[in-house]
Amino acid sequence: MPEQAACVRASNFTEVNLGYSTELARQEALRCLECAKPACTNRCPVGVNVREFVQLIVAGDCMAAAARIRQDNVLPAITGRVCPQEDHCEGGCLMGKKVQSLGIGYLERFVADYEQQHLDFAKISKAIPTGKKVAIVGSGPSGLTAAGDLVQRGHQVRVFEALHEIGGVLVYGIPEFRLPKKILREQVDYLRAMGVEFETDVVVGRTVTIDELMNEEAYDAVFIGTGAGLPQFMGIPGEHLNGVYSANEFLTRINLMHAYEFPRYDEPMVDLVGRPVAVIGGGNTALDAIRSALRLGAGKASVLYRRSEEEMPARAEEVKHAKQEGIDFQVLTAPIEFLSNRNGWLKAARCVRMELGEPDASGRRRPMPVVGSEFDLPLSVAIMAIGTSANPIVQSTTPGLATNQRGYIQADENSQRTSRKGVFAGGDIVTGSATVILAMGAGRRAAKSIHEYLTTGVW
Ligand SMILES: Cc1cc2nc3c(=O)[nH]c(=O)nc-3n(C[C@H](O)[C@H](O)[C@H](O)COP(=O)(O)OP(=O)(O)OC[C@H]3O[C@@H](n4cnc5c(N)ncnc54)[C@H](O)[C@@H]3O)c2cc1C
User: Fold this and answer.
1) Residue 65, ligand 1, Cβ within 6 A
2) What is the pTM of this model?
3) Is 426 in the pocket of ligand 1 (CB under 6 A)?
4) Mean pLDDT score across all residues of the chain
5) Can you tell me the distance from the alpha carbon of 149 to that of 450, in angstroms, rounded to the nearest whole number?
6) pLDDT band at 77; cut points 50, 70, 90
7) Measured between alpha carbons, how far is 122 from 84 in angstroms, rounded to an integer?
């Protein structure tokens, strides 16, 4: 996949990957072995029929390829860009055992972008209305997928979103250089053209409750896909200092509020130019935050991660890109305290080196501090990207909605049904922070199950 040179892209927010030409896409598609038992499809949480769409690219019919993908995946331009393909489709590709796996994500992205350029929205057909109404709470990938699948079955679908833009993490978390907002908007426009209705600035649980939606606004079913956007902190001294951010706040200011376009957008950020910045964590969120800081002019941009690179949960491509851009990776390192200057601003992180012990509950080797290894790392900004948890608003305002000890909604893993009749849930609000494609898989299962409930009346 052609990409912007690392030295150029490290100071701009335009997309890193440039996309395949039609010829490159065809060449790549020709590498498909057309396996009789395609592990790529079996390992995809939404079951995209890779073999068929790839063969349609070979045949030169990219619109048919797009239509084939859309039968299983309503957000192909997004999954083609951000899915951890190495853990799913490409991880199952037979060719990967000998040479490089087929670039399934890149091909999906190519087909979706091709469709977008050639699509006539007027030709998108609408299903025959069933007369049933479904409310979707949250417009992240789980909610958008459920909405797309349900509207295709003829149900009237309305998505309620707390923020002023649609997309969940896709719009407020993942930066422009990985997922341009224009691409997301086009995917949302496609759903709109299919008949999905959207209402922003509605905090369900405050503006309106689930009970009010069902009893007063006559929704026959509700899907909750509110994500897990509540930031977590380490609980170490100095986390309150000026200059210490949660990754969610940092990224929201940049992505949703356009801080990188200040003063055209009225969203100031602390001045990072020439200053040392570090992110704490090793997932996609951490890399998005530190690569954004680099683009905003940070002097030294470091990742502090308490395990080794092997355990890093971020997508392989993001780690590769971050290294090319000059991000400094301090693995087996964790802060134990943030130190302040006399004005209450962060001036350094006291860190400790770690070593890996026996595997913990997550199956990964437990990091243990190395005695006497403390050192101070000068820092102007520290960004905490150590995970998030469930926002409690919907759960606390919906009587009878069962949650687990950590506040996540309990839902059946096949049907996504909750303890409340007619109420379904899926995505990060059920599983905890996971991935776009897993959230989409949950949205898909929920849509199927909601359709069964609406057509049979059986709970
Ligand atoms: C910075 C970052 C980068 C990531 N990068 C990747 C990646 O590269 N690849 C990948 O696969 N995964 C990635 N992930 C994880 C992935 O984005 C999430 O797993 C996924 O978005 C979860 O989808 P969701 O639909 O469950 O919730 P979300 O995307 O979190 O969306 C939930 C939506 O619900 C809204 N909401 C919440 N409460 C209410 C309410 N009370 N009323 C109305 N609306 C409400 C929120 O505002 C939000 O818009 C990343 C996550 C982050 C934070």
Assistant:
1) no
2) 0.93
3) no
4) 94
5) 10
6) very high
7) 33
